[in-house]
Specification:
The chain is α/β, with parallel strands linked by helices. It is built from 14 helices and 12 strands. Helix 1 packs across helix 9, helix 3 packs antiparallel against helix 5 and helix 6 packs across helix 7. The radius of gyration is 24 Å and the shape is elongated. The relative contact order is 0.10.
Length: 387
């Protein structure tokens, strides 16, 4: 089951996106709706709130008086924590029940307004953020929804910034334009990425890079993508992962590269990576074990099921040669601009002559062997230790 986290600031158009996902066939779980459901009249949630905050928070008709409760919790941090201690477990239990009720092949979209604020991005296979400039959001809130200028600005200021949301976003849907333009972006994301992601996840098939080598200029978004992936992996594996490092060409600013994020996960014993528990933990985050000859001599190989972000994940022992050499080559190329540029030139020539990616990778090996020897000299002169 593919789990998609959906979020966006107030006035961004998140509800429009959620509705479109529902129309396209997703199971949409609305966190705001569940938050209201668990404190409905005669619910155990409302009874607990009444016991903690008194009769004043309950209206004459037996429903929660949100205005009165809001005045209490927004003025008192402890009161807010007490409220969350009541509602969050109830919302979590209801969310889990809805997830369990969905068929395994369905795509689930979890609409969570405070996904970024609650640091939940790593809980999903894909995090989608709807974004719009603040002046556009202000206009929507004061025009379409009747907020005062002060109230609208306060609501926006109380939420995560666009910078924080972009850092969490695997996919960013720009909603500075028309509704039809936004829906077109949603449809494209669904068809080009989400459906394929779900298919790969269900079939156990990692996404692959193109058959022919395809090089692109360095992309400033690669480190942020690697950081999001690293967070998912560390959440999945916990203490079983000693370290996770971004390696390979996309980890070297200015280096020509294939659009593939290479990561290595450090473990104490590579045999641990072969256990069902380890493999299933990574698979639950969308990192699928490759079959057959794709496992390397010094580690095990996983790939992401996401067709929109090809990821190669190597599981290696942190005291093994493969771990150290990957870090050495990365750090040396970052430090030695001339070597980096020479490597880019070589990659360009080989990509033009190689018919397949495999042929291209094999053709690079002699240069890498020689480069590692030069990097070792650099390491001795600079005191590099890889730690």
């Amino acid at each position: 089951m593919l789990r998609v986290g959906l979020t966006g600031g107030i006035g961004s158009g998140k509800s429009t996106v959620a509705q479109r996902f529902r129309e396209l066939g997703a199971v949409v779980i609305d966190a705001d709706l569940l938050a209201r459901e668990v404190v409905a009249a005669d619910s155990t949630g409302l009874a607990a709130i009444r016991e903690r905050f008194g009769d004043a928070v309950v209206s004459a008709d037996g429903s929660l008086d949100r205005g009165v409760l809001g005045e209490i919790v927004f003025a008192d941090a402890q009161a807010r924590r007490d409220l969350e201690a009541i509602t969050h477990p109830l919302i979590g239990a209801r969310t889990s029940a809805l997830l369990e009720a969905a068929a395994p092949e369905r795509i689930v979209v979890h609409d969570v307004p405070l996904l970024v604020e609650m640091d939940m991005a790593a809980d999903y296979h894909l995090t989608v953020v709807v974004g719009a400039d603040e002046d556009i959001r202000m206009a929507r809130l004061t025009g379409e929804r009747g907020f005062t200028q002060a109230d609208a600005r306060a609501r926006i200021a109380a939420q995560a910034s666009d910078r924080e949301r972009r850092a969490a976003a695997d996919a960013w849907l720009d909603n500075n334009g028309t509704v039809s333009a936004l829906l077109a972006l949603v449809d494209a994301l669904w068809q080009d990425r989400i459906v394929g992601f779900n298919h790969n996840l269900m079939s156990g098939s990692p996404s692959g890079r193109p058959v022919a080598p395809t090089l692109v200029a360095y992309d400033d978004s690669w480190p942020a993508a690697a950081a999001r992936l690293t967070h998912r992996i560390t959440v999945a594996l916990g203490e079983r992962a000693v370290a996770v490092e971004h390696i390979g060409s996309t980890s070297v600013p200015g280096l020509l590269a294939e659009d593939v994020i290479d990561l290595q996960v450090g473990v104490r014993d590579v045999a641990d990576a072969g256990t069902a528990e380890f493999v299933e933990a990574l698979a639950d985050k969308g990192f699928l074990r490759s079959r057959g000859d794709d496992n390397t001599p010094d580690g095990r190989f996983h790939g992401s099921a996401d067709p929109g972000r090809v990821v190669h994940l190597l599981i290696r022992e942190t005291d093994g040669p493969g771990w150290r050499q990957a870090l050495l080559l990365r750090d040396w190329l970052r430090a030695e601009v001339d070597e980096r540029d020479a490597y880019s030139a070589l990659k360009r020539r080989l990509a033009q002559s190689a018919a397949t990616t495999t042929e291209y990778v094999d053709a690079k090996r002699p240069w890498i062997v020689e480069a590692l020897a030069r990097a070792e000299v650099w390491a001795r002169h600079t005191g590099w230790s890889g730690r």
